[in-house]
Amino acid sequence: MSTASSSAGTAAGEQDQPAGNSRGRVVVASLIGTSIEFYDFYIYATAASLVFPALFFPNAEDPTTQLLSSFAVFGVAFVARPLGSVLFGHFGDRIGRKATLVASLLTMGIATVLIGVIPAASTPGWAVAAPAVLVLARFCQGLGLGGEWSGAALLATENAPHGKRAIYGTFPQLGAPIGFILANTVFIALSTTLTPEQFASWGWRIPFLASAILVIVGLWVRLSLLETPAFRKVLAAEAVSKVPVARVFRSSWKQIVSGTFIMLATYVLFYLMTTFTLNYGVAPTAPEDGAPAGLGYEKVDFLWMLILGVVFFGVFTLLSGPMAERFGRRKHLIWVTVAIIVFGGLFVPLFAGGTFGVQTLLILGFTLMGLTFGPMAAVLPELFPANVRYTGSGIAYNLSSVLGAAVAPFIAVWLWAQADGSPVLVGVYLSVMAVITLVALLLERETRDVNYADNVSA
Q1: What is the largest CA-CA distance in the chain?
Q2: Any idea which fold 22-229+251-443 has?
Q3: How far apart are CA 458 and CA 455, in angstroms?
Q4: 8 Å CB contact between 82 and 241
Q5: Considering only 18-32, 192-206, 319-333, 350-364, which range has the smallest mean pLDDT?
Q6: Whose CA is closest to 172, among 183, 160, 184?
Q7: Hey, where are the domains in the chain?
Q8: CA distances, 134 to each of 69, 112, 118, 386, 436 (Å)
Q9: In Å, how far are 3, 62, 138, 150 from 69, measured between CA atoms?
Q10: pTM attached to this predicted model
Q11: How much is the pLDDT for 12?
């Protein structure tokens, strides 16, 4: 059945769905899971910037090499994410969304707690083992998150009433700003209550260990779910794919390519706004060790600036759903992507504008992030039939993470150093990636009116 069926067919298919999860249960289950997942992911990103370079890579040649080594491990998770989307997508399209979401959350949670107990590389006998275990745990984090996002997106959108998929799709997306705020608030609290020596010695471990509590809460919520109506229709039609990854590449490979590049600017923007800006913001204005110059902010002060920006991320994530329903996903994202291209050209003047300019840059960047990230939980799944939707949307989403987020912090640090401490090339990099996304959007059709509930690949 075609993925471009009429809106009338969509309405009939979705309104006839059997009763299932209430709206409140869908909101909480899709939101809490991604909040926990992104909390886990962000505490690593923050630690990778502030603690891990010296803790796990003390023998690197200089601070810049330490930072690049830390970000290289940061990128391991993004390499694992497409594998996670295939692994968890296989089970999500074969046995259902609910059980797979529970498994992905456990994988992510166990890996995060493990990071919290790894000895430092300076510990006798751990010079090689500590970085190796960190890489393994980071890989497992990526596997879990690779299976988490598409499942949470389907939980929301496959339970959505007709005409509200983009609105419901913002629920799991809201987990990103919530997880970011929670993770960085914890780091601020630790930084202000502990001495730098205490924080570097053991305080950084607390956020990783505390994630165990959050995972237990998330599991309790998700175990109470019913299977989504769309997957129950796949079961009723006896259309479950035996090998979803083979079928999705055979029937929907063009959609995988399209979805990957549609997400590219979103990923690059987000990890530049969080990881790069944090490093650039707290780096000394006149470093003595050969590292590129930064803005010289105190760590806690800049984290508060980031948190204020992420508030706009959350607000505009919610607003993006109604906008994508009213104007269409494609038109909405085209205009937001054009704005991202322009935004890349504002890096130099805004970073040079003092605290007001830097805060304005963060607010504008995170506003654009909310507007582009919010609709993605509807856009990517709408590209794929129901019986390969978990796998297909997850692969597209996570392949984009490799091309965008995995390398963005590494490339940004290198460009920053090449430009003698100026962010000009980093802004150019963002604009170029956004141009690629714009081309992908112009080549893709509108997906707002696809027959979402009944569509099954042959």
Answers
A1: 67
A2: Growth Hormone; Chain: A; (1.20.1250)
A3: 10
A4: no
A5: 18-32
A6: 160
A7: 22-229+251-443
A8: 12, 10, 7, 36, 33
A9: 44, 11, 13, 30
A10: 0.83
A11: 39
